[in-house]
Predict the 3D structure of the following.
Amino acid sequence: MISGHLADAIRLEDLPRGSPGRQRVKARIKAIPEDFEVEEVNNFEPTRDGPHIFLWVEKRDVAGGELLRRLASALGIRAADIGYAGTKDRRAVTRQWLSVPGECERALEAGVELDGIRVLQYTRHRKKLRLGHLAGNRFRILLRGADPASAGDLAETGRMLEVGGFPNFYGEQRFGRSGESLAMGLEMVEGGGRSRGRGPGRFERRMLVSAVQSALFNSYLKSRIEAGIAGTVLKGDVMTKTDTGGLFFVEDVEIEQARLDAGETRITGPMFGNRFMAAVDEAGELERGILDRSGISAQSFDAFKRLARGTRRVLFERPGDFSATPAPDGVTVSFYLPRGTYASVLLRDFVNQSED
């Protein structure tokens, strides 16, 4: 059962936006997969030697878990043998890196033909690809049906968000249809890792626990915005340095507020886990309050030590290289987002109907 404040935290359209005073357009998103293009931006260069093979893969209208299952079957390996940096939208055309064991080379040389999946190129690398090993993603999205004359206003909104940022909520796809993934994840967390019926595989378990972490984060960010302290540094907050990503606790509120206002640092929120960096003092009380309201203890994540170690996530994120241009069928928007940031969340500042 999803408790009230968590149910409120996963209804994306009801959550605060980055530019609530700006006019939005009515448009369809993902009417066809080609309307939504995503390309992964990596933070590494393949070494072109080593025991692993990196694949540059394009998929069309295929879910992330299904991509791993189909490719594993075609190559004769387990889905767990495939490394990936992040999952991509299903109803879209997406390009990303995957890694597979070196012994798959013969099968790749023979050619891999899969419905909706293409291996565009492959090369060798010394290490397996791990979750989070990417810089971000570039998006090209058609707002189908939007008035082409609105492109100028949308571009101005984009420029505002590049400076001020938008709430870094998790999108609804994180929680499954009608919150089913979150409900299953809560059952697992509250049951100490157990679930009714046939147990899900490792990929699914990771996603289910992540749904719980994400809902708790959304609730935390929502509560700070509603309390008017989303941009206010609190004693004990965990901040991140904009240039290096280093984390530290706030001791002197006045000094750190000035650094935040200057763009040198950002406030982070909790992705609860068994090894995450918890806030202390006033900020710590807010974090613990979110768990208390959910009926979840910090120790509930101990059963998922490899799947839910926990981390910190910035409360507000900024798009990069934003553009909006008229198109024959609407307006095309293009932008870059850092890893883990949802295009569907950003699009709420531009579109008042975000899915087809």
About this structure: The chain has a mean pLDDT of 91. Residues 96 and 162 are 25 Å apart (CA to CA).
